[in-house]
């Protein structure tokens, strides 16, 4: 049985990765600091669902720990013979990174460095880093992994660029097998409340006006969370050093997302527009040929189906979701 460390395990993507790993009989060492960047009720709910998984009693161990704390990480990891680390822990959110850039660098860059050091010292030969499509700002679409990503337009993107660069250094110096996955606008049930899909669903259901930055014509390559998790696990195989996009390869306008939410909720939204934020990207679109070639992966869930699943989850969980701060 392979032993996998998953950081950010109570996060949106990390928890989905953990569920799929449990389904495949991996042993998981789950790490999360449960910070309050967004409403912790969502993290607690995701963690509880993991603990209720039919294989969790034998295969799931959770530690409340911050990846910035190297001593605690070391104490945890030296207890196990670990086969790989999947780093899903990060400070996320473009706009908030402008207000608090220091914490983005300490978590996304220094925390990443701590995990690379753990790999080096404990002979863990596989490291997966969750990165971001935000690095492609200003590049021609659809975005390919070979494009230069040297002009980050937010501290968040810059911190992820730093993490990628350090991961390559450890591959070069210590032969660490590194796969960097650039995710594209991940959404789905129990998503992040600072992102448009869950915010717009909640606001539409409760009749609160939707705050939209720009006119709604900007596009995103919305990618369903279970597709992302599936691709992440496929990347556990040895590959040397690779950067791979995981995206839906089908960009849609924000206005279409809103229309689908209205259709699935049966409610008309109220829209309030604000100026487009200069740290946001106007459009994203993933070229996923490399993921298909190297991982045998392609997205399976359309935006229509993904929104329907997300709305259904919100309605079924409305007793507590309505209290979640967005």
TrEMBL record:
Residues 6-309 form the NAD(P)-binding domain. GO terms for molecular function: oxidoreductase activity. It comes from the Bacteria. Pfam families: GDP_Man_Dehyd. Its EC number is 1.1.1.-. The keyword Oxidoreductase applies. InterPro entries: NAD(P)-bd_dom, NAD(P)-bd_dom_sf. Transmembrane segments: none annotated. The keyword Lipid biosynthesis does not apply. Keywords: NAD, Oxidoreductase. PANTHER family: EPIMERASE-RELATED. This is NAD-dependent epimerase/dehydratase. It comes from Heliorestis convoluta.
């Amino acid at each position: 049985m392979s032993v996998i460390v998953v950081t950010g395990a109570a996060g949106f993507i990390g928890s989905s990765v953990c569920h799929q790993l449990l389904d495949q009989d991996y042993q998981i060492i789950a790490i999360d600091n449960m910070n309050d960047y967004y409403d912790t009720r969502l993290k607690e709910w995701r963690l509880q669902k993991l603990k209720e998984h039919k294989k969790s009693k034998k295969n799931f161990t959770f530690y409340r720990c911050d990846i910035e704390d190297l001593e605690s990480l070391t104490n945890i990891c030296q207890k196990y013979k670990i086969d790989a680390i999947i780093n899903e822990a990060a400070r996320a959110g473009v706009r908030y990174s402008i207000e608090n850039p220091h914490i983005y660098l300490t978590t996304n860059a220094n925390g990443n460095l701590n995990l690379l050091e753990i790999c080096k010292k404990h002979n863990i030969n596989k490291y997966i880093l969750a990165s971001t499509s935000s690095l492609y700002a200003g590049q021609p679409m659809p975005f390919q992994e070979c494009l230069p990503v040297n002009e980050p337009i937010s501290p968040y993107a810059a911190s992820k660029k730093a993490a990628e660069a350090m991961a390559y250094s450890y591959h070069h110096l210590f032969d660490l097998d590194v796969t960097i996955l650039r995710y594209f606008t991940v959404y789905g049930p129990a998503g992040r409340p600072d992102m448009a899909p869950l915010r717009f669903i909640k606001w539409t259901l409760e009749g609160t006006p939707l705050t939209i930055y720009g006119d709604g014509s900007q596009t995103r390559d919305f990618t369903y969370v279970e597709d992302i998790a599936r691709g992440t696990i496929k990347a556990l195989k040895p590959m040397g050093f690779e950067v791979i996009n995981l995206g839906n390869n089908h960009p849609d306008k924000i206005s279409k997302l809103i229309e689908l939410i209205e259709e699935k909720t049966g409610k008309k939204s109220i829209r309030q527009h604000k100026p487009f934020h200069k740290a946001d990207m106007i459009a994203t679109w993933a070229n996923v040929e490399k993921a298909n070639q190297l991982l045998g992966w392609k997205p399976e869930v359309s935006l229509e189906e993904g929104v329907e699943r997300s709305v259904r989850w919100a309605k079924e969980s409305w007793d507590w979701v309505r209290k979640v701060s967005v």
